[in-house]
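Chapter summary example.
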Amino acid sequence: MKLILTKSVESLGEAGDVVDVKAGYGRNYLVPQGLAYAASEANMKRLEEERQRAEERSRRDYLEARRRASQLADVSLVFHARAGEDGKLFGSVTAADIADRLNEGGLDFELEKRAVVLDEPIKALGDASVPIRLHAEVELSVEVRVEREAD
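The structure predicted for these 151 residues follows.
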């Protein structure tokens, strides 16, 4: 029995795969659980159309991310913060702070804070290179400088 998987099934396949299973397994488990549907001619055509739409959407998203990355190229940010004598901040510069500062910079899109890949907040004076991930295949770095706040 040929079925098209709607969700990933362990040791069988990923969503969108066409699989050949025993009739009882398909009829009694996969179809009633909503994990698959029959691989008829019409459904195969629909699956191919869905794949084409997904590829087109992915291509558009990639091109849009590249366009956005070009706006962020060569951007550097300067933050002024209070710090102790040893250079440690009395606070930190977070991913949200960086995203907010970039959004204030006149971008024609809203950068989400989750796009800023900062493992932990910046807690010391100095320079840091912060990665920005706009798409799975589009990543760039923004230079961030943290300076001592003037008294």
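To summarize the output: Helices lie at 23-30, 41-72, 95-104.
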